[in-house]
Amino acid sequence: MGSQPPASRAALEPLATLDPAALAGVPTSSPLTVRAAAVSADLLYLGTGGGKLLLFSLLDPSAPEFLRLLPIGATLPVSAILPLPSVARLLVLADGLLLLADPLLSRPVRRLGSLRNVAAVAARRGDSADPASASCSIAVSVGKKLLRVDLTLQDGDELDVQTREIAIVEGVKALAWVDDSVFVAIATGYSLFSSTTGQGVDIFTLPESSGHPRVKPLSGGDEVMLLVDNVGVVVDTFGQPVGSSLVFNTTPDCIAEVYPYVIVTGNSKVDVYRRRNGAYLQTIPVARTGQGVLIVASDDDGIGTELVVIATAYKVFCYRKVSAVEQIKASLRRKNYKEAISLLEEFESDGEISEDMISFVHAQLGFLLLFDLRFEDAVNHFLLSETMQPSEIFPFIMPDPNRWSDLVPRKRYWGLHPPPKPLEEVIDDGLITIQQALFLKKAGVDTVVDEDFLSNPPSRADLLELAIRNIIRYLCASRMKDLSSPEMEGVDTFLMYLYRALDLVDDMEKLASSQNSCVVDELESLLDDSGHLRTLAFLYGSKGMCSKALSIWRILARNYSAGLWKDLSENGSSGTSVDKRSGEEIAAIEAANILKTSSDEDLVLEHLGWVADIDQELAIAILTSEMRESQLSPEKVVAAIDAEKVLIHQRYLQWLIEDQGCDDPHYHTSYALSLAKSVIEAVHMESKYRGKDNREIDSDAQKIYLLREKLQLFLQASDLYDPEDILDVIAESELWLEKAILYRKMGQENIVLQILALKLEDSEAAEQYCAEIGRDDAYIQLLGLYLDPQNGKEPMFTAAVRLLHNHGESLDPMQVLERLSADMPLQLASDTILRMLRARVHHHRQGQIVHNLSRATNLDARLTRLEERSRHVQLTDESICDSCRARLGTKLFVMYPDDSVVCYRCYRNQQGDSSSGRGRSSRKDVIFKQSWLVSR
């Protein structure tokens, strides 16, 4: 990566500048030259080229306090300082020697072992994270050896030192120890050694022209940065590259980390990079004086450290990490929204910002964009904010004070946008700003106004529509949240306001007809004045204000029918291409939906008439609805139904009888009378218009058939109507089957037979009716009707022969012969009469046989019973009762048909039980013995 322009973003900000020599009171004749620096908790250590250690307190980073100066030897320039908090020591590398000091530099330093010519040293990353362990390990490069030194803090503040060799490595330039892996940098490349087994592996080789190798452990404890010229390669504890490499502007001399930033020094400047993607962020200007390199240090072992120390030879600068919130706020002040959004995403991925603050920033971004007239982007950020309340939008829709003014939270944003005000004012102010920016641009002055607005200034109407549509989008999304009841009322009411402002009729009606929290008082006059009566009717209906809703639907239906309003079916706003309904029908349907659930009889009956005038099926659905809590009074409903609406009357009575189980004879009779009148009228109309084409004739015939079938089924099924009233209606008609059913209900068997046999000539039905009567004289009566139909009708000999053929065997021959007509041809009845006489004789003889067999069986049973009673039974002294097992002796006993014997006492105890002493039941288990009838 080549040189980059200075970034406008400040990731680090200055806190304090130190003059170590002045604070330590060192005379100017022997100046201090800083060669090493280290930060541990709230302490700053500086090492000089003159063999001195300086200690400063960072309790107040903006005003560091000098604590102590400890000389370690004028000929021992300090090259590295490693705080070891777990063993309460400070490790100092000076002129190839390892020295130990206490953390407060209160005692003279002590030499660690006899090690000389130490090239590099590194503490095991993670040892100091647990001070309770009281031990730590360091890796030391001495000559060609790589050593491991274990330090353990013992009682009396003494250290136990254990040293062992890890590997043979020559020319070590830098060390880093993470987990079990010791990373070694030499002039030709990087290697990795196991701190326990000593096994090593080469990671990669450096080019010959490569700069000084450096190794830097990164926060998290499982990654290390290896420097290759100006590239920082990030590897894991196994030496495998992970993530992205960091490309620096120059080859670093020193590297430090304050998560999520990496700070490097080189070429007399300090650069700040983002660790995750290596993005260059900032250059810190440092006035370098004297010789030596810039030193940068931070608390490598600190958690959440924010302090960075940059040291030149004579000056020390303290910098603090700028918080994520402050960086975002700075971008927003400059109205650099893209940068602010990028920062927000960056901090969110790094875990540097809380969820609540993320929501807060999205809300702040949304308000800024809203006042910059970027309404779509503003609402997108509003929707990303989990903590923003919909009531914060209310002042942009309706000026204060209003019903919901107290719901608007007084949140303290960053003061980057004006107070909320209606959208019209926001747009007017924004347009003025755009006009001013246009003049400034012509004058060559840069502005923060969006270039799109400057190149193509929008109109006020377009901006207002865009703003309203996006606020609608936000409010619709807010309806899905768990809001309080007053806030939900505000959301829905303002939604209706905005829908009306854009004349979004479909959306208005959809909201009004669904479950909503709209405040009717706020919308009533608004919708009425603007002519949105359908929406108002839907709103009344959803709020249970049925009377007002129905009144509007009635007005709408009247206006549609009178042509005062344009019919909905003309502009295709209702219904499908297949089934489009007129506005009048839609009004009736909506009214019916309300009436179906209403239990208010007066209200239902008040509006039933006009609905029925439009669609009788809807009226029927209203009356027969099962959705209402309590059903309507049948008496009032029947009285309210228009006499001309016969279909409604019939369907209601049918539902009342069949579905509701009504057993009132009055309604059964009314239903039957209505059906009968309809049938008679249909028959009359059909006969009146005989000149119709075949299709019309078939349609009328089908209608009559269905009507008669319904009447017949009801007359047969119900026993509660008055047959005489029905007969009075159909007396002059040709409805013979209906008359037969009615006469049958009245018990007029002769008339029923006359209708079936003579009028309908249905022999099968007539014979079936005789079978239902169950008397032979009914067949004789039917035979007489066939043979002597009277009224000049010819005898029905074929039907008579059929009757004799089917039932003649059961009839009295004498009565049959008496009924036979002299005019009846002998050849028609001879075979039937002969077969009837033969069957009669056969039945007589069969009866005699059965009678004689019965007498024989009776005689056999009497004989068997006599034999059983005359049996002789011999008992001995050993005979016992089969029930109680007692010896019988001279006791009375009883013997059962299965030859079991019981004493008289057991017999008395078992009286009423048919079981013998052996458990056999004489009633269930009958014993058959051969008798004279069987044996012969």
UniProtKB/TrEMBL annotation:
> Which portions of this protein are annotated as coiled-coil regions?
none
Q: Per UniProt, what is one Pfam family of this protein?
A: zf-Vps39_C
Which residue numbers delimit the CNH domain? 31-299
| Gene Ontology biological-process entries | intracellular protein transport
Where are the annotated CHCR repeats, by residue?
624-796
Cross-referenced InterPro entries: Clathrin_H-chain/VPS_repeat, CNH_dom, Vam6/VPS39/TRAP1, VPS39/TGF_beta_rcpt-assoc_1, VPS39/TGFA1_Znf
Q: What is this protein called?
A: CNH domain-containing protein
- Source organism: Urochloa decumbens
